[in-house]
Write a structure and sequence with these properties.
Elements lengths: L4 H10 L6 H19 L33 H5 L5 E2 L2 E2 L7
Length: about 100
């Protein structure tokens, strides 16, 4: 696969970028170099490699939920700028 000048112009248009002719040529060369480097991965033998969604083993690091006492309402509302009926009172965001 190869990137052409037309491909770079198309992507620049989609991204609403104005590129000079020099930049178009530069990006065409750079993108082709990236693709050429990525093609080296096709040379690897991956027959015995298990498919993964992450390069590192991911485990759940969350603690188990434990039922315990909550903060009293008075303590939670102590530093609130405004409260009403035991709840935080905030300015309306909808009319």
């Amino acid at each position: 696969m190869s990137i052409t000048l037309k491909d770079v112009e198309h992507v620049a248009k989609l991204a609403r970028l104005t590129l000079t002719e020099q930049e178009k040529e530069q990006f065409t060369g750079q993108l082709n170099a990236i693709l050429k480097y990525a093609e080296k991965l096709n040379e690897l033998n991956t027959d015995d490699v298990e498919p993964t969604s992450h390069v590192l083993p991911v485990t759940n690091v969350m603690r188990d939920d434990v039922v315990r006492e909550s903060v009293p309402v008075e303590t939670a509302l102590k530093n609130a700028p405004d409260d009403e009926d035991g709840q935080f009172k905030v300015p309306a965001v909808l009319e």
